[in-house]
Amino acid sequence: MEITNNDPPQPHPLPPPFTHTAPAPTLLTQGAEALLYRTHFLLPSHPCALKHRPSKPYRHPVLDKRLTKHRILSEARTLVKCRREGVSVPGVLALDAEGCGDAGSGGWMMMEWVEGRTVKEVVVEAGKRIKERGGGGVWEEGLRALMGKIGRALGRMHEVGVVHGDLTTSNMMLRPSPTSLQNGTTFTNGAEGDGDDAKSAGESLEGEIVLIDFGLAAQSLQDEDKAVDLYVLERAFGSTHPEAEEGFQEVLRVYGESYKGAKVVLKRLEDVRLRGRKRSMLG
Amino acid sequence: MAFLQSLNLAHIPPDLAVHIALYADVQNAPFLRDQLLQGSPAFEYALIDATVILSTTHVLAAVFRAANDHLNGRLRSRNVHSEIVFSLGANNNIAQSLRTFGITATTTDLLAIKLSTNPSITASTVSEHLAASVNGTPVEFSDATLAKMADGGKIRKLYKLSGVGEADSKGKRRRKDGSEEGSGGVDGIKAGSTGYDAERERKELEVAILGLMALRGAV
Ligand SMILES: Nc1ncnc2c1ncn2[C@@H]1O[C@H](COP(=O)(O)OP(=O)(O)OP(=O)(O)O)[C@@H](O)[C@H]1O
Ligand SMILES: [Mg+2]
């Protein structure tokens, strides 16, 4: 037997019933825990996202099944709750938390397809444009509005008693609203930008925030949990988007206005930051 | 007979075809229900009271789940057809889901579904058997027909979704005749909302229902 190190990583097989799917689902991302595919729901014309949590061969099969089932159901439960209570998240279409076969195929969840890009991509693009053109223009104005929308979306989520557990700009999407696509933009009257620039800023920054990836979410009404949620995003934002770091203040400002109790959470965030700083000084 | 629709669900092998017939003004529901209760093999169907079905997607999502569990050898109820009815429910209680969504003695709007679980079950055998057994008016299996039959208030109540997708919870009215054009036809959707709003409200209700069916009460 020959052993080589340069074999490509073994792709995970799709779980049943998607081995029959035509056209085959397209793999979008492969994280540590899950694979994300684009496919369709009951008809080829109805796009959806498929999240597959494959079984882990190094875990005991009984434990593995239990963990997979728990994570699938926990994410689905949170999405369903959010959607019912008006937090903008993809709806759950179907799931299989059990898998099948002795080896275990893991579990899967189908959810509504969200058009648009991740907030990460959008902010990176805006940051680049702002750098090229200098501050104070349509891109900066649009980015600020986007930050406000994030604050409002997070406020709404916390208000209904959900903490996300993994807030990053990759776990939020900006879905273009149908009207913004038709009517151009709200930034066209920005005096600084030329028309084309305003149009592309509008097209890329306009839309609705949709929160995704609730694999680590929990239900909680504790200020501490909510503050930690914001702290995680603040840190992630600082390292992913150092050029747009001040923009984060706008997330917090709008968050603070967004529901009763938000101000207390912001106060708590100061404690969490202090503890975080102490810990990093010790570490 | 002409109204039987045979279709393939995405992801499900095509030999497991789905045959669906929708009827209005059914006169012999007590007879059909007895055949089901007796477990007569010829009457192995999912017989569903169409007034608790919101849309084609709503019922097909239940068929999809039952077919997948059938293929994985994981049925919880007697057969894949009772499993379809069970899969419409938002909890783990088989008897309750069969009672809530299945045909009753007073059913007049009836959805009959049969899967080709073996090659002898074909569109023509199903079509013939239904024509000989169901005393009712065949109508098209479509969102438009289901929307007219659907009792939105009842559907919201049994999924505990009051308020979801409702622009105005006070505007609820029963509208069994489906006479308001462009209203989407689902009761309980705000009277006077435009076609676009009604459609959005219906979609919102639908996605909430699919989520609850998928969870099956998992806590
Ligand atoms: N419903 C959706 N519609 C469109 N794109 C999606 C959807 N869900 C996820 N994506 C895309 O796939 C990427 C990965 O999805 P997600 O964040 O849920 O998975 P993950 O990070 O691998 O999961 P986990 O952290 O739970 O292991 C997202 O950043 C986004 O670009
Ligand atoms: Mg993610």
UniProtKB/TrEMBL annotation, chain A:
<dbReference type="GO" id="GO:0005634">
    <property type="term" value="C:nucleus"/>
</dbReference>
<keyword id="KW-0963">Cytoplasm</keyword>
<dbReference type="Pfam" id="PF06293">
    <property type="entry name" value="Kdo"/>
</dbReference>
<keyword id="KW-0597">Phosphoprotein</keyword>
<protein>
    <recommendedName>
        <fullName>EKC/KEOPS complex subunit BUD32</fullName>
        <ecNumber>2.7.11.1</ecNumber>
    </recommendedName>
</protein>
<keyword id="KW-0539">Nucleus</keyword>
<keyword id="KW-0158">Chromosome</keyword>
<dbReference type="GO" id="GO:0005829">
    <property type="term" value="C:cytosol"/>
</dbReference>
<keyword id="KW-0819">tRNA processing</keyword>
<feature type="compositionally biased region" description="Pro residues">
    <location>
        <begin position="8"/>
        <end position="18"/>
    </location>
</feature>
<dbReference type="GO" id="GO:0004674">
    <property type="term" value="F:protein serine/threonine kinase activity"/>
</dbReference>
<dbReference type="InterPro" id="IPR011009">
    <property type="entry name" value="Kinase-like_dom_sf"/>
</dbReference>
<feature type="domain" description="Protein kinase">
    <location>
        <begin position="22"/>
        <end position="283"/>
    </location>
</feature>
<keyword id="KW-0378">Hydrolase</keyword>
<keyword id="KW-0804">Transcription</keyword>
<feature type="region of interest" description="Disordered">
    <location>
        <begin position="1"/>
        <end position="24"/>
    </location>
</feature>
<keyword id="KW-0547">Nucleotide-binding</keyword>
<keyword id="KW-0805">Transcription regulation</keyword>
<keyword id="KW-0779">Telomere</keyword>
<dbReference type="GO" id="GO:0005524">
    <property type="term" value="F:ATP binding"/>
</dbReference>
<keyword id="KW-0723">Serine/threonine-protein kinase</keyword>
<keyword id="KW-0418">Kinase</keyword>
UniProtKB/TrEMBL annotation, chain B:
<protein>
    <recommendedName>
        <fullName>EKC/KEOPS complex subunit CGI121</fullName>
    </recommendedName>
</protein>
<dbReference type="InterPro" id="IPR013926">
    <property type="entry name" value="CGI121/TPRKB"/>
</dbReference>
<comment type="function">
    <text>Component of the EKC/KEOPS complex that is required for the formation of a threonylcarbamoyl group on adenosine at position 37 (t(6)A37) in tRNAs that read codons beginning with adenine. The complex is probably involved in the transfer of the threonylcarbamoyl moiety of threonylcarbamoyl-AMP (TC-AMP) to the N6 group of A37. CGI121 acts as an allosteric effector that regulates the t(6)A activity of the complex. The EKC/KEOPS complex also promotes both telomere uncapping and telomere elongation. The complex is required for efficient recruitment of transcriptional coactivators.</text>
</comment>
<dbReference type="Pfam" id="PF08617">
    <property type="entry name" value="CGI-121"/>
</dbReference>
<keyword id="KW-0539">Nucleus</keyword>
<dbReference type="GO" id="GO:0005829">
    <property type="term" value="C:cytosol"/>
</dbReference>
<dbReference type="GO" id="GO:0002949">
    <property type="term" value="P:tRNA threonylcarbamoyladenosine modification"/>
</dbReference>
<keyword id="KW-0819">tRNA processing</keyword>
<feature type="region of interest" description="Disordered">
    <location>
        <begin position="166"/>
        <end position="197"/>
    </location>
</feature>
<dbReference type="GO" id="GO:0000408">
    <property type="term" value="C:EKC/KEOPS complex"/>
</dbReference>
<dbReference type="InterPro" id="IPR036504">
    <property type="entry name" value="CGI121/TPRKB_sf"/>
</dbReference>
<comment type="similarity">
    <text>Belongs to the CGI121/TPRKB family.</text>
</comment>
<dbReference type="GO" id="GO:0005634">
    <property type="term" value="C:nucleus"/>
</dbReference>
